[in-house]
Specification:
With 276 residues, this protein is of the alpha/beta class. It is built from ten helices and ten strands. The protein has a domain of 183 residues: Rossmann fold (3-Layer(aba) Sandwich), CATH 3.40.50. Strands 6-7-8-3-9-10 form a six-stranded mixed β-sheet, sandwiched between helices. The N and C termini lie far apart (37 Å). The relative contact order is 0.18. Bound molecules: adenosine-5'-diphosphate and magnesium ion. The site of magnesium ion has 4 residues, from helix 1.
C-alpha cells in the first residue's frame, strides 16, 4: 500500500538535470570549547545521487550529527561547501530548507500536546490543511506500527520509540526531496527498529526521495544503504557499496571493513563521554 504524502510545498521546483541530490566538497567544522579546538568534521567530500539511500556509519563522536547539521543549514562549515539539488546551502538557504527535512533524536515537540496535535501544528507551518495533515499523519503512523489509539495522549506519555516515529511522520508530511535521518533507530527496541527500517526502505521505492541516514549499527547500515560512508574522527575513511567495501578491504563482513578502515572495532571506537 502506497502511503499518501503531501504534495511538495510551493517553492523552488527542482529543475536541475543533475543526478546529484547532495554534493559536499571539503567540508570542515571545528568546535571551540575551553580554549580547545576540536575538529568534528575534517575535509569531508561526498556525493549522494538522487533516489539513493546513503548511510553514514561511525562511532559516537565521529562527526555524523555535525555533518548532518551542516547539510541541513543548521551549522555553517568553517571550510568547504555543500550543494543540495544544485543549490548552495549558505547562499540559497531558504530554497534548500524547502527541499530538505531532518529528523534527529532531539526532535522538538510540544510534549504536553498529543502526537496528532503536534503533527497538525507542523503541517500548518508548511501549509498543509489540518484535516489533510491529520489523515496523512495517521496513515504514516499506522504504517510505522504506532497504536493509533494513543495519538491523542500527551506526547510525553509515549515511549521514546513512539516519539521517534512521530518525528519521522512529521518529516514525511511535507514530502521532502532530501531526507536527513540522524540515527533514526538508535534507542529503539528491535521491533520498532525493524518497523522504521522497513518504512525507510519502502519510501525510497515508492517516492522520489533521497535519504542520508546516520547510524552506528553495522547491520542497519548494510540493510538500508545503497552506499555507505565510514566516518572516523571526522574523516570519511571509506566509501562504497557493501560489496565494494568488502572487496576493497578483502573482508568477509562490513565489521572487518570498519576495523581495517578505522583501526578499531565499532563498539570500541564509541566515545560515549564525548557524545552529543
Ligand atoms: N555544539 C558542540 N560544541 C562542542 N563540541 C561539539 C558540539 N557538537 C559536537 N561536538 C563534538 O564534535 C565531535 C563530533 O560530534 P558529533 O557530530 O555529535 O558526532 P556523532 O554524531 O558521530 O556522535 C565530538 O567530539 C563532539 O563532542
Ligand atoms: Mg550524533
Amino acid at each position: 500500500m502506497a502511503i499518501e504524502i503531501a504534495p511538495r510545498r510551493p517553492g523552488p521546483q527542482v529543475t536541475t538535470h543533475s543526478r546529484d541530490a547532495l554534493v559536499a566538497t571539503a567540508v570542515t567544522k571545528h568546535f571551540r570549547t575551553d580554549n580547545k579546538t576540536r575538529r568534528a568534521v575534517d575535509d569531508v567530500s561526498l556525493r549522494v545521487g538522487r533516489g539513493e539511500i546513503y548511510g553514514l556509519l561511525g562511532a559516537n563522536g565521529s562527526g555524523k550529527s555535525t555533518l548532518i547539521r551542516v547539510f541541513s543549514t543548521l551549522l555553517i562549515p568553517d571550510a568547504g561547501d555543500v550543494r543540495v539539488f544544485d543549490r548552495d546551502v549558505q547562499a540559497d538557504e531558504l530554497a534548500v530548507k524547502r527541499l530538505i527535512n531532518r529528523v534527529s533524536v532531539e526532535a522538538s515537540f510540544f510534549k504536553k500536546l498529543s502526537a496528532i496535535e503536534n503533527l497538525v501544528y507542523a503541517g500548518r507551518l508548511y501549509g498543509v490543511a489540518p484535516d489533510e495533515a491529520k489523515r496523512k499523519a495517521l496513515a504514516i503512523l499506522r504504517r510505522l506500527g504506532v497504536d493509533v489509539e494513543r495519538v491523542n495522549e500527551p506526547l510525553e506519555k509515549l515511549s521514546r520509540g513512539m516519539q521517534q516515529k512521530v518525528a519521522i511522520a512529521r518529516a514525511f508530511l511535507t514530502a521532502p526531496m532530501l531526507l536527513l535521518l540522524d540515527e533514526p533507530t538508535t534507542g529503539l527496541d528491535i521491533r520498532s527498529k525493524r518497523e522504521v527500517q522497513t518504512f525507510i526502505r519502502d519510501l525510497r521505492i515508492e517516492h522520489d526521495a533521497t535519504i542520508v541516514l546516520t547510524t552506528h549499527d553495522l547491520d542497519e547500515a548494510e540493510r538500508l544503504s545503497d552506499r555507505i560512508g565510514i566516518l572516523h574522527e571526522g574523516r570519511l575513511v571509506a566509501e562504497g557499496t557493501t560489496d565494494e567495501l568488502r572487496a576493497r578491504y578483502g573482508a568477509a563482513a562490513l565489521e572487518d571493513v570498519f576495523m581495517t578502515a578505522t583501526g578499531k572495532r565499532l563498539d570500541e571506537a564509541d566515545e560515549p563521554e564525548r557524545a552529543k
